[in-house]
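During the reporting period the student researcher (J.K.) took over the structure-prediction task from the postdoctoral fellow and processed the backlog of single-chain submissions. One of the processed entries is reproduced below for the supervisory committee.
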Amino acid sequence: MTAFEIALSLIIGLFTSGLVMYWTTRNFVQAKSFSSDDPSTSFLFEGTELVDSTENAAQYVQSARPSWRDVVLSLQPRFGLPEDILNPSKRRVNQTFQSQKDNDSSLCEINLIGRYRRIDIRSDKAGANTPKLTIDLESYASFKGAIDTTPVPIWQQDEEGKILWYNAAYKTLSQVLSSKAEKPLSEPMFKFGDDALSGGESRRLRVYSPSEKRDIWFDIHKNTSEEGAFFTALDADAVVRAEIAQRNFVQTLAKTFAQLPIGLAIFDGNRQLALFNPALIDLTGLSAEFLSSRPNLLAFFDELRDRRLMPEPKNYNTWRQQISDLVAAASDGRYSETWTLPNARTYRVNGRPHPDGAIAFLIEDISSEVSLTRSFRAELELGQAVFDSLDNGIAVFSSTGLLTLTNSKYRELWDEDPESSFAETTILDCQRDWQSKAQQDPVFQRLSDFVLDFGDRAPWSAEIKQLNGKTITIEAVPMASSNTMLRFFEGSKIRPKPEIVALPVNA
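J.K. obtained the following structure tokens:
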């Protein structure tokens, strides 16, 4: 049971208990203190609303719920009541009127009791005894104030759907929702149709608001007691609008997810599939009927395993434990694996936690990426093999002086393997290493300056002597994007420049 339902039950229980006590003092049609042949009659009003009356009051007014005006007009011909009495808002002192008919000594007394007004009709048979109503004004005022000050509309209907009683909140709501200046409050605002509510049931209904020009939603609850059927209307408009906004948001997300090439499967806190996109169907081959049935997480992965869409477990007995470990890792955002499938496809699967214990799995087909990576790696390996087959050493430096490529001959000449180091090797590192294994020569500084030069450069070559006596010829060749290639040959490879011979000029 949600917090809203608990609050609703408490409110309904509170108001029902109060209404039962209130209605026992409110039922003016069956006042139990008087017999049907009692010649005395009394009416009790609060403003223009009849609060209580004796049982024989129907002999004066034929309505079960007469107003102040109805009673006064019915008594006016007999007792000659003045016209201003029709206005109950005027506060007057207590008044007594004598019957104007012959052989009739009856009296009509109008007494002011706080905010209540009482009419007593005493015949000559009744003597001086004033009839006493069953209602306790102090208790009635207390319950009436509590019921009328609550913001929840409360009312009572008879078996035919007519309104028998309502509180101030119901009256206010009726006036707000009415498109007319005056709306008969005897007609209910909420129509249940043919499917009526039973006691203890609730239903969400909507009514049209002319002021806002839209429907407003209420949760209507019915509660029955010995006094009849009582209804309460709790404002559910904010809840409905939030649900609509949430539904629209989910639809927007679903439309967005439908365009994603990555398969998406979101499982709620109960580990039931709550949301998926079309890409999941394309990648896994799972049917839309199966996914729409909201399978649980284990059933989902079982189906993937049966279709050989995930790596086959080495030990099926521990399969469920592996899935539990997978879910635990996804709950922490740690699950990320690459599935290599028998059909030569490769999937990257990531698990991510979501609010309220939900988990999202993202399945991405990276077969093309893996194939491209493998092809690129093969090309790199082929190029490296070609470089290693050359009989001269090669070292390639980037524009910033980082050593990016060497071959086996270079590593043999200088007895070093830059690729075995975790740190990047620069031209300055190589310069120090060369100088430590060769005689001092300004060529090494010139090489360093040439590699780091961003201007126009021309190829050049020079010879150096290693400490072991070998002669090494170095060629510096500029390359595209300010890269530099250094070639190392054993022996002297520098060709002498041809001498220029002056030829005689014929006279």
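The committee noted the following: The chain is about 30% helix and 25% strand.
J.K. will present the remaining backlog at the next meeting.
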